[in-house]
Predict the structure.
Amino acid sequence: QVQLVESGGGLVQTGGSLRLACAASTDIFSTNDMGWFRQSPGKEREFVAALDYILSKTWYADSVKGRFSISRDNAKNTVYLQMNSLNPEDTATYYCAADACSPACSFGVDSPRRYEYWGQGTQVAVSS
């Protein structure tokens, strides 16, 4: 069973930065695509970024493009989300996820339905 554990969340002022980490119990990031999502109270889970396991191709939500960066360290079975220029609208619980269907999946990387494994989430709060 794959386990994902996020870390790195916290409270930061507007304009600040945080780096989230997602550690996997297996080398799943070497064989499957992964994504970061976020969810605020009363809202649906929202796509943030994704990373392809073969070519390390990346995808970003328009709202974070140019500010967030996703990367991977296969030796540590860890994926990172570097978040810069944070603003209060980024406040949410952030979740990492890994799919079990790569390379042939029915859903796009931006759909929560694609992903089989999820972490417990890490909270990010950005004060104005």
Notes: The two ends are 40 Å apart (CA to CA). The first strand starts at residue 4 and ends at 7. The mean pLDDT is 95.
